[in-house]
Amino acid sequence: MNQQPRYTTLSTFMERFFPYKVQKISINAGFTCPNRDGLVGSGGCTYCNNQSFNPDYCTTEESVRAQLERGKKFFRRAQEKRAHQRGKELSENDRRMKYLAYFQAYTNTYGEQEHLVRLYQEALAVPDVVGLVIGTRPDCMPNELLDYLAQLHREKFVLVEYGVESTSDATLERINRGHSYQCAIETIQRTAQRGLPVGAHFILGLPGETREFTVNQAEIINQLPIDTLKLHQLQIIRGTAMAREFIRQRERAAQDVTYTSDYSLYSAAEYASLVVDFLEKLRPDIVVERFASSSPQALLLAPDWGLKNYEFVALVDKELRRRDSWQGKYYSPCTLT
Ligand code: SF4
Asked: How confident is the prediction for the chain on average, in pLDDT?
């Protein structure tokens, strides 16, 4: 049986840039977000609680350099533990591993350019850090900064990752994103035109979006000049505006049989099937970096799958093999005209 992944993996993309394995280390560089501080909006996106995607080893109390050094130790210890469990020494591949500084929390291009450059350079000065991954919003990327990053990318790897979340403006408005889909298209184009690798992040199953709409978004995303894609299932995180809306709808549905909530939270099996439908329509060259995420149990209201990410990836693999399918099986370059 062929056990090759049936979708384009991040490692195949990274192999184009690096002759060794690279590991991302998340950093919280102390940014805020224009959708929280009033510049674009206040209150933030309705689903957002940044605590849910900040690993324990990253805290704003430490400098960028200290966070990276801590992250390096964390991953080295994990490698040693795995090697020990196998009763072996660290492999040559593990020993040669390098790191990418992942500016992840909040909006990592939101600030004076001088300040941003200082933080990016601090990260790149850390031994064995060979590039940057910068997460940001589509409405927070001035051309001047893009020009600097494009110049930097001639010497060091730089990937810019945009939170797009949905191709529907009605959804973006409802979740209080503060930008339109057209804004995402234009910023992604400006980034790709400068030769920078570009990633995009989408949440599948946002409120009001049907399964059919969710799957068909792949055909719209195919038109974007992106290299990498992260998909997440909708998770309702405690303490967010979305959690309050979800609970209100659930309570109303319990009292009124004629009322139907427009939150359709998928079971793990349903979501794996949805992801495979989506993959079948997706452009084959787009790297699929993630299918799902797992927020800390204490923060997660629903859905509670009780699965680790690698266990969910196994479900997607299994479904692809069951269907004898693969990424792009039903991709058509001319779907949208
Ligand atoms: S843009 Fe990002 S950090 Fe800002 S509120 Fe939305 S999800 Fe949170």
From this structure: 94
